Fold Tagatose-bisphosphate aldolase.
Amino acid sequence: MPVTFYSMPRPPANLLFDQVKLRFLGVVPGDQVRGLVPFYHFRILIKRTTDVGHINFRIGDTEHVRLCAGHIGYQVEERFRGRHYAFQACCAIAPFVRSIYPAVILTCDPDNVASRKTIERLGARFLDEVPLAPADQIYHPGSCVKRRYEWGLCAEQP
Ligand SMILES: CC(C)(COP(=O)(O)OP(=O)(O)OC[C@H]1O[C@@H](n2cnc3c(N)ncnc32)[C@H](O)[C@@H]1OP(=O)(O)O)[C@@H](O)C(=O)NCCC(=O)NCCS
C-alpha cells in the first residue's frame, strides 16, 4: 500500500550523519489544487542546536514530484554553505526515506551547481533533463528545465 497523508509514519528521532542532525518539525499538508503533495519538514542542525537550513521529504508520486520538485528538497543558509551540509542532511534522512521508498527522484536546475554536485555526491543515477510543465513554470520562475536523478537507497549507499 502506498503511503498517503493519512498513513504517513512519524520519522525516527535520531536522524544523524557526520556533523548534521535533523529535527522534525511536522508534516505540511499537500495542496491538490496546485498538485502539491504532503511533505515531512526537518530543520538541519549542526552541533545539535545551530539551525543551518531545512530538508523536506515529499510523499507521493505525482507528475509534479517526478518531473519538477523531486522527493527531496533542501536549502542551506548562505553563511553556512561550503561544508556539504545538504549532502550530510540527505545521508541523515536516507534511512527514513528508505523505509518508505526503495528509490526516489532528485531534481535540480541544470545551472544549480551546488545542488547538482550534492546529488551526484550521493551517488544518484542521472536519468534525463525534462522541460518544466507550464503549470510548474508559474511557481518556479526562471526555471524551464530540470535534471532528474534516481537515488536508489540500497543499504550500501549513504
Ligand atoms: C544547494 C545547497 C543546499 C547546497 O549547500 P551546501 O550543502 O552548503 O553545498 P556546498 O556549498 O558545500 O557545495 C556543494 C558542492 O558544490 C560546489 N559549489 C557550490 N556552489 C558552487 C558554485 N556557485 N559554482 C561551482 N561549484 C559550486 C562546492 O564547491 C561543492 O563542491 P564539491 O562537492 O566538489 O566539494 C545551497 O547551495 C542552497 O541552499 N541553495 C539554494 C537552495 C537550492 O538551490 N536548493 C536545491 C534545490 S534543487
